[in-house]
């Protein structure tokens, strides 16, 4: 009788163990054998966190983070949680997933980086092809008492670097971008001219012109740039001249003309 009970107990244990192994095959480190590891590899990969716990942990840094946002980033293939029990099983996240999310959200917030660019960087990091050492930030200088951006052509500013050097908040820079006055590049970086546009737009806003009203200035510049570009290409075609050099020369002339006309119009109302 005892032997029968023992055999039954052993059989049941074997059955339970087989089911557990089939659904969650765990290795010596607590990482399921069928789980795809991701960058950062030096962080614990064991999937022990529920999606709500992940949101709770990151909420202090990213108050707008929700469960829906995490799932959206999953749909965008930027993060792939482990599915406990199969493809339709419950999501489980590791500490590495948390740090990966922190990286994604930080790049979005601080660098205004598009998800496509973030995804490309993550893919390179997953393959060990990218180095995340931060670049040395370029500096701002003053010109006749006015703060200007003085960057070499090969140096760019992240939104956090630009905010620090202009003495403004990241939110203020985001407002300029949201007003569609200017925009960073595909990787969320600002070159010298774009950074200068941000500075001037914020200064105009500080003096009473709403940012949304400055959108018309940006649109006018785009129209003038198209005119100048077409003119420069037409007059340098077949002549072996640099159309960009002529374009910049024309831009300076048009800019001076615009300034003179604008000042004349303002003075006429005084």
Please give a handful of descriptors for the protein shown.
two-stranded antiparallel ribbon; Transcriptional regulator, MerR family; 4 strands; mainly alpha; Multidrug-efflux Transporter Regulator, Chain: A, Domain 2; about 270 residues; 3 domains
What can you tell me about this protein's structure?
A hairpin with a 2-residue loop joins strand 3 and strand 4. The chain contains ten helices and four strands, in the order αααββααββααααα. The chain has helices at residues 2-23, 51-58, 67-75, 95-111, 115-126, 159-166, 170-178, 192-206, 215-236, 243-268; strands spanning 82-84, 90-92, 140-143, 146-149. Residues 1-28 and 133-148 have low confidence and may be disordered. The longest helix has 26 residues, at 243-268. The protein is mainly alpha-helical and 270 residues long. Helices cover 55% and strands 5% of the residues. The termini are far apart. The strands form two sheets. A two-stranded antiparallel sheet has the order 1-2. It has a two-stranded antiparallel sheet with strand order 3-4. It has three domains: 51-127, Orthogonal Bundle (Multidrug-efflux Transporter Regulator, Chain: A, Domain 2), CATH 1.10.1660; 147-209, Multidrug-efflux Transporter Regulator, Chain: A, Domain 2; 213-269, no CATH class.
């Amino acid at each position: 009788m005892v032997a029968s009970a023992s055999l039954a107990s052993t059989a049941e244990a074997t059955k339970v163990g087989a089911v557990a192994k089939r659904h969650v095959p765990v290795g010596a480190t607590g990482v399921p054998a069928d789980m795809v590891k991701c960058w950062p590899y030096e962080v614990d990969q064991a999937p022990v966190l529920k999606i709500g716990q992940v949101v709770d942990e990151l909420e202090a840094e990213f108050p707008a983070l929700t469960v829906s946002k995490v799932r959206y980033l999953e749909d965008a293939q930027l993060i792939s949680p482990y599915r406990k029990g199969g493809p339709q099983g419950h999501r489980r996240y590791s500490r590495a997933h948390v740090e990966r999310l922190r990286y994604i959200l930080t790049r979005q917030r601080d660098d205004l980086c598009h998800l496509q660019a973030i995804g490309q960087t993550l893919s390179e990091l997953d393959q060990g092809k990218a180095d995340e050492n931060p670049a040395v930030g370029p500096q701002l200088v003053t010109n006749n008492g006015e703060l200007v951006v003085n960057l070499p052509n090969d140096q760019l500013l992240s939104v956090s670097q630009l905010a620090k050097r202009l003495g403004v908040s990241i939110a203020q820079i985001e407002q300029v971008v949201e007003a569609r006055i200017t925009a960073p590049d595909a990787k969320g970086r600002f070159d010298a001219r774009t950074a200068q546009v941000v500075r001037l737009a914020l200064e105009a806003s500080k003096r009473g012109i709403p940012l949304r009203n400055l959108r018309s200035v940006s649109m006018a510049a785009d129209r003038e740039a198209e005119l100048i570009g077409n003119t420069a290409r037409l007059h340098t075609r077949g002549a072996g001249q640099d159309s960009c050099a002529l374009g910049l020369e024309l831009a300076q002339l048009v800019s001076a003309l615009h300034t003179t006309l604008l000042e004349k119009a303002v003075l006429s109302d005084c």
